């Protein structure tokens, strides 16, 4: 039986519930993360609270009566659960399609384990078909765009969009991402860049991959 992308997202969100610890959970942003939040609502009481990676996620968690804590008021988190726009078998990802990349990277950095939920369309051999989101301080937009063009990409301003941090997003098309770890550093070194959507220096630990044959569990070493 073929499943829609929405059904695959829901299946991986359900599978992610197995990883929820008793304490505080880091929660990602996006349509897959939303399914996960809805699943969390069904096991309230089995965990303490959540830290949100965006205002939208905080709002959805609260709407289910789940307590949302400030990241600065908690210690290291056991797990961070989130979706991705693209992911490789090395667990390197592109994130930020929803513009939440910076807060997502911060919460992921504070978590012992990153559980990524993705439907099979997101698994790629090489990152970069999905335009790479880069969060930029507004006054540096033109400068950063010129520097990104020197790296071979074609940056486009995400029109009418402001991040939760009050910044703009440049979506960089046609980048050749042969070495994601190196490129992540290179882009972050451009003055005016807040962060970029490459998650390769802090890759996922577990990938829950939604396929029509069921949810597959992949790890970096697999
Ligand atoms: O900023 C958004 C996040 O990085 C999302 O996790 C990513 O865009 C995947 O979103 P979705 O689950 O909606 O495909």
TrEMBL record:
Keywords: Isomerase. GO terms for molecular function: ribose-5-phosphate isomerase activity. The active site is at residue 104. It catalyses: aldehydo-D-ribose 5-phosphate = D-ribulose 5-phosphate. Coiled coil: none annotated. It holds the Pfam family Rib_5-P_isom_A. The keyword Isomerase applies. It is an enzyme of class 5 (isomerase). Its EC number is 5.3.1.6. Pathway: Carbohydrate degradation; pentose phosphate pathway; D-ribose 5-phosphate from D-ribulose 5-phosphate (non-oxidative stage): step 1/1. The keyword Isomerase applies. Substrate binds at residues 29-32, 82-85, 95-98, 122. One of its GO terms (biological process) is D-ribose metabolic process. One of its GO terms (cellular component) is cytosol. It comes from the Bacteria. Homodimer. Catalyzes the reversible conversion of ribose-5-phosphate to ribulose 5-phosphate. Belongs to the ribose 5-phosphate isomerase family. This is Ribose-5-phosphate isomerase A. The lineage of its organism: Bacteria, Pseudomonadati, Pseudomonadota, Betaproteobacteria, Nitrosomonadales.
């Amino acid at each position: 039986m073929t499943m829609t992308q929405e059904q695959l997202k829901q299946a991986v969100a359900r599978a992610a519930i197995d990883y929820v610890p008793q304490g505080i959970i880091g929660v990602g942003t996006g349509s897959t993360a939303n399914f996960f939040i809805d699943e969390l609502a069904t096991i309230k009481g089995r965990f303490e609270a959540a830290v949100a990676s965006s205002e939208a996620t905080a709002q959805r968690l609260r709407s289910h009566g789940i307590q949302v804590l400030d990241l600065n008021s908690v210690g290291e988190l056991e797990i961070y659960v989130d979706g991705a726009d693209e992911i490789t078998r090395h667990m390197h990802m592109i994130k930020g399609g929803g513009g939440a990349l910076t807060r997502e990277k911060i919460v992921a950095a504070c978590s012992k384990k990153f559980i990524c939920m993705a439907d099979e369309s997101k698994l790629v051999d090489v990152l970069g078909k999905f335009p790479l989101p880069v969060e930029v301080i507004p006054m540096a937009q033109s400068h950063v765009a010129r520097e990104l063009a020197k790296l071979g990409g074609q940056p486009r301003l995400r029109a009418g969009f402001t991040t939760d941090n009050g910044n703009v997003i440049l979506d960089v098309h046609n980048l050749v991402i042969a070495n994601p770890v190196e490129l992540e550093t290179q882009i972050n070194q451009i003055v005016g860049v807040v962060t970029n959507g490459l998650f390769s220096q802090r890759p996922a630990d577990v990938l829950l991959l939604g396929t029509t044959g069921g949810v597959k569990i992949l790890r970096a070493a697999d």
